[in-house]
Amino acid sequence: MANEEDDPIIQEIDVFLARSLLEKLYLFQYPIRPASMTYDDVTHLSAKIKPKQQKVELEMAIDTLNPNYCRSKGEQIALNVDGTCTDETSTYTSKLMDKQTFCSTQAASNVSRYAAAVYKKGELHLTPLHGILQLRPSFTYLDKADAKHREREAANEGGDSSQDEAEDDVKQITVRFSRPETEQARQRRVQSYEFLQKRQAEEHWVHLHYYGLKDSRSEHERQYLFSHGHGLAENTELIKSPSEYLMMLMPPSTEEENDKPVAPSNVLSMAQLRTLPLADQIKILMKNVKVMPFANLMSLLGSGTDSTAVLRCIQQVAMLVQGNWVVKSDVLYPKDTSSPHSGVPAEVLCRGRDFVMWKFTQDRWVVRKEVATVTKLCPEDVKDFLEHMSVARINKGWEFVLPYDEDFVKKHPDIVQRQHMLWMGIQAKLEKVYNLLKEHLTPKKQEAQSAHPLLVSGEQRVNMAKAKVKQNYGQLEKEFQKQKAEMKSNDTSAKMDVSNIRIKEEPVSDEEPMDTSAYKGTNNGIVNGLHEEEDSTGSLNGHLPGGCIDRVAQELKAFVSSTFKKQFVLTLSELKRLFNLHLASLPPGHTLFSGISDKMLQDMVLDTGCKQILVPFPPQTAASPDELKVYALWEAGDTYDQHRQVLLEIFSKNYRVRRNVIQSQLSQECGEDLNKQEVDRVLKDCCVSYGGMWYLKGTVQS
């Protein structure tokens, strides 16, 4: 207690984990330089990197005008390296050593313990480092000078020999054929130092651009060092129980770990699995199981696991198919990988597997031949896709491996709706990539399965009927007793004295007959979270309370306002797409999940100060009705409002316009000569350039 009083807590600092630069942030350690020179003052000529090897080469300019620079020594080094003649291949084109190359080496093999920290406004933001590289001077130019020296000596020694003497010197050549390489010899060759050096040399350099400390791009990238979301979704690693935190502070000794039996690299015990973060546990389980109901996943994660956190993490690595979770394609086929069967890149494999998953969202059965025809992939790859999530049935096709999980769908309608919108986005991409026909988009009805007629004898039928009667006897007896009780109660009520009961008589008006028409139900058809009908103004879930309607309107107005302040011009199709993405990012149970119709969205656009621009599209346009509706923000409250209004008036009369026409019209209407930067600003807000012409955003027909 005395020690605690002597050392009080002065300040508590919140720690946040930034993920924007995860696996992208490197720490470069430069050589020590004079205190008067900072690295921001040094001119970086060029930089290049080999990402797989984490190897960097950096060229820096040397200040040859510095009084400490020895000019004679610099000229001598340039002469030794390049010789007397200079050309494009010369290292020092100025005949002076005016630059120096730095090559990187890894300072530590395990950098998981290191992070870059930024302190701002009482918050400490940590970003894990992906690598620590030490840059040291490279002296490859000395090797080049030695090679030049050897070439000159060889030329001097062989200068006296003639061509005739070279032709007379004939040597016998022995031809040998190499034997087939064994597996052991191949493994030794692959593990040899020469082979590894060759593999490293084969990796191409990726050239980089250097930005100074005060450059605007550097300031923009520096913002990624801060955690922009302070919710639990991005900081689950920082939430540990006391026992887990103690284990992190005092990990087990390496001797104890070495005594444990070594398991195969692809096997992970449940005890080891539960030491990992929740997101990694879910990713490993889904990657191995491929398809899993949510209830089974919760049982594997152990008791006490928060289902909300699991739902948040599972959506990062899996998609919902028939109420069950199927691992995402990019988890099974990461970037820069290829198919082991055909060598097809991972991007093509992900599209093909997404098509199979999408087909299972439409129907329980998928035909392998149809998948191969649409995706154009080899049969082995298609079979792998189907085996991940389905079972082959003879003469039927491939059936989804798990039954439809109605319990999960009923308990989590918001998750189901969000996943439905994500699938609609995937469907739109698949339609463009594979040019899907209507027969692919509509689910096929299962044909009645032809079965052999079952022959049942008369005696068997009698026995089956007797068993059914015995089974239903108890239920029939209960219903009979219930009817008798109701009849007795009706007889008792009939004997009641009704003398004191008076019926109030009202005059019947002939002008207002009673409405006996059936109530018309609302249409619950929804596409991408939006009603298809233009006249659908009601909510998806029926009538909402007045307060709820106001909250929905406020949320919708905030979305529309912020979107148009960023985009200025949007088609209805693009606005609906952005709205669906916005819905997918909202937490479960948000008010906007009550359902928004197309008419509500368009009315809100007009209420926020936007106007519809009647663009004269060409008659042969193939645009959809939603793409023909163009809306623009009429007043943004800045100095360019008048210029944008003139520009929108131009496009209300012309589908496409040349730049010189726009500039002259702006100068004429606004009464001032606009410079190039101002015209570019207005065009950037509202238009796009294609083929030398300018179009309003979203109206270009390729």
Percent strand: 5-15%
Q: Which stretches are poorly predicted, pLDDT < 50 over at least 5 residues?
A: 162-166, 255-265, 445-456, 494-544
Radius of gyration: 37 Å
Termini separation (Å)?
77 Å
User: What's the assembly state of these chains?
Assistant: single chain
The largest sheet, given as strand count, sense and whether it forms a barrel, is: 6 strands, mixed
Shape: extended
- Helix content range: 40-55%
The helix/strand class is alpha+beta
Short description:
The protein contains 28 helices and 23 strands.
Can you describe what's shown?
Helices cover 44% and strands 14% of the residues. Strands 2-8-5-4-3-9 form a six-stranded mixed sheet, with no helix packed on it. It has 28 helices and 23 strands. It is extended, with a radius of gyration of 37 Å. Among the domains are: 12-62 and 98-150 and 196-229; 270-434, no CATH class; 547-696, no CATH class. With 702 residues, it is α+β, with helices and mostly antiparallel strands.
